[in-house]
Structures are given as structure tokens and as C-alpha cells.
Write a structure and sequence with these properties.
Shape: globular
Largest sheet: 7 strands, parallel
Length: 349
């Protein structure tokens, strides 16, 4: 693990650079948990930022606004009540709301999501709700805001701040073999009877997230993309969809878990902000790993148990192509003129 002082030092140093001035950011799911801590770190280490954030609680939002303005009186901060993020339409409405206010976007942090013991739970668009809030919807939001990210990149220019996209989920928990099997079976949406289980669902969401962001990183060289595992942060709302009895059990054991293996939300927020402006210790415009800049990078053969990096590059390229093509079908199935206009998929797909 990278020493926290190194992360703090890099973040403090960033505040003194021209890149830290006047950034526009959108934090999705920020009235609690990891995105909240990342927002506070962002406010601490930037100058005159414009911050938009979504959440479920107006009371929590007002408290966060007050705290943020104490941290940074030069900040301009606006709350956008969370629409239904278990649907693509909900993400479209969030894009619409943001575009009423801004034309450029420097930072997009996506953290909304939850765990559930339910089986497949389809929304009105024919997509599973958990897969939508954790993957399809995040990509819908990112793609809907891609022109705004591109506009920010043009304005910042060479050597300026690179627009950065952070998807806080579970990098390092991808499953190449499961994803290949589901692709071969034509079942990436896990719609076939008997295939929607916690393991399959997790592996396809994590693999698809990393592969789709890798595809975008290859296309959008002037931006940074990251799929990040935040570690065990106990003060999040990720278990809100669990049955009351399990939430109660978690409430009892949460302090013990936090002391034994947990990480402080404040530290994770600092680490997330460091990734936004540095891209991780290896640089480049794609990071897959932990909040502290370390972790299991899905692009490395040893991580997936492949003996040859060359072999894995070929297989991963094939997986990425299939995952990207399927994403295009899902995006087109529901329909979005805004995304169709990006020209990211050929007519054949």
C-alpha cells in the first residue's frame, strides 16, 4: 500500500498548479460513502471548483453543501436529486439536468450502486436493475456526457488537466473465463434461466466495466479513465437493499470489521482524488486497481492466470470487442439520439 503521506503530499501539491483552477465536476451518489469523501477531497485540493452531486437525501445534501463551503469558500456547489438510476432513462434525465447548466465537464465520479440477494429483477427496459445501476447506467451516463468531457479536453489543451472519469466498483474482481463462457452462450445479460447468480453477475459487471473503459481509453487519448476498488469502507449505503435482519447484523459487526480490515473513508477519498489528477503510479490514461494506486490490473496476464502476456492481449482484445459490441446493442435497444450521434458503433452492430 502506498503511504498515505505520499498521497496527501501529491494532493496538496496539485492545489498549487494551474490545473487545479476552475474545474467542473459531477459526483453521482455522493450524499454518503466513498463519493462523499472523494467530493470533500476534491473541494479541499482545488481552486474555485464547480461541483454538482446527486444523492437520495435532501437533508444529507444540505449538510454536505454546508461542509463543502467551509472546506472551500470559493466552491460553487449544486445538489441534483437522484433520479431512478436502476434504469437507463434515469441516467438520461441526469445527463439532461447537467447539460442545462454546463457544456464542459472535467471530472465524473460514479459511485451509486448496491448489493442485493434478489435474483434477476428486470426494469421496464428489460434490463436487470442491479446490472443497470452498476454498469449499463454508468456507461450510459458517461457516453451521454462524453461531448462535455471532450469539450473540456479541448479547452484545457495539451499539458492541461485531463478530464477524468472514475467508476468506483470492484476492479480486481473481474472474471475472464466466466465472461468468455457467457459471450459464447450469447448470455452477457444473464437473461437465460438459471444463469443469474451472485458470482456470474459480479464477474460480468466487473469484467465489462474494465473492458469498456479500456476501449474508451484507446479511443479518447486526452482523457483518463479508472475502474477502482475502494477496499472495505464501512460507512456506505451499499447494503440498503438487503433484508432488514441482515442490515441489522451488519450494523452490529460493522465496527469490528472496520477495525480489522476496514479503511477510513477520508483516506479513500484522498486516494481517489489522487487518481483523478495523476492516473496512478504507472501513468497512462487507464487505471484498474485499488484506491491507493495499487491492486490487481486486469490487463496483466498473471492476474487472470494466463501464462503468456501475448496470449492474454489477444484474448482480452477479443473479449473487449464482444463486450463493446453488446454494450452498443443495449444502448441502441432503448434508444438515445445523443449516444447514437457519437458514432461509437457501426450500423452493423
Amino acid at each position: 500500500m502506498v503511504a498515505m503521506e505520499a498521497i496527501f503530499s501529491a494532493n496538496r501539491a496539485f492545489k498549487g498548479t494551474p490545473e487545479a483552477n476552475g474545474l467542473v465536476a459531477l459526483f453521482v451518489g455522493a450524499t454518503s460513502g466513498i463519493a462523499l469523501h472523494t467530493l470533500k477531497s476534491f473541494a479541499t485540493h482545488t481552486n474555485s471548483p464547480t461541483i454538482y452531486f446527486t444523492g437520495r437525501s435532501t437533508t444529507a445534501a444540505n449538510s454536505l453543501i454546508s461542509e463543502t463551503l467551509k472546506i472551500n469558500p470559493t466552491a460553487n456547489i449544486t445538489f441534483i436529486p437522484t433520479p431512478d438510476l436502476t434504469s437507463l432513462a434515469g441516467h438520461d434525465s441526469l445527463v439532461d439536468e447537467f447539460l442545462k447548466k454546463e457544456t464542459k465537464l472535467d471530472v465524473l465520479v460514479m459511485s451509486a450502486g448496491y448489493l442485493t440477494l434478489k435474483g434477476r429483477d428486470e426494469n421496464e427496459e428489460g434490463l436487470d436493475r442491479k446490472m443497470t445501476i452498476n454498469y449499463y447506467g454508468r456507461m450510459r451516463l458517461l457516453l451521454g456526457l462524453l461531448p462535455s468531457l471532450r469539450a473540456a479536453a479541448r479547452e484545457r489543451g495539451e499539458g492541461g488537466f485531463k478530464p477524468s472519469v472514475l467508476s468506483i466498483l470492484a476492479a480486481g474482481r473481474e472474471g475472464a473465463e466466466i465472461t468468455r463462457k457467457l459471450i459464447d452462450e450469447g448470455n452477457l445479460d444473464l437473461a437465460k434461466p438459471g444463469t443469474f447468480g451472485p458470482r456470474n453477475c459480479e464477474k460480468v459487471i466487473m469484467s465489462s466495466s474494465s473492458l469498456a473503459l479500456e476501449e474508451l481509453s484507446l479511443r479518447e487519448k486526452n482523457m483518463r479513465f479508472a475502474h477502482v476498488y475502494p477496499g472495505i469502507v464501512v460507512d456506505t449505503g451499499i447494503m440498503r437493499e438487503f433484508p432488514p435482519i441482515l442490515r441489522g447484523v451488519w450494523g452490529v459487526f460493522r465496527p469490528v470489521v472496520g477495525m480489522m480490515v476496514g479503511v477510513k473513508g477520508e483516506d479513500v477519498g484522498e486516494g481517489m482524488f489522487s487518481l483523478l489528477h495523476s492516473g496512478g503510479k504507472e501513468g497512462g490514461n487507464l487505471f484498474l486497481g485499488q484506491w491507493d494506486g495499487e491492486g490487481r490490473d486486469f490487463r496483466k496476464a498473471k492476474v487472470v492466470g494466463c501464462n503468456s502476456q501475448e496470449e492474454w492481449e489477444k484474448e482480452r482484445g477479443s473479449l473487449r470487442q464482444e463486450v463493446w459490441a453488446w454494450l452498443g446493442q443495449v444502448m441502441g435497444r432503448v434508444g438515445s439520439e445523443r449516444i447514437n450521434g457519437l458514432g461509437l458503433w457501426s450500423a452493423e452492430q
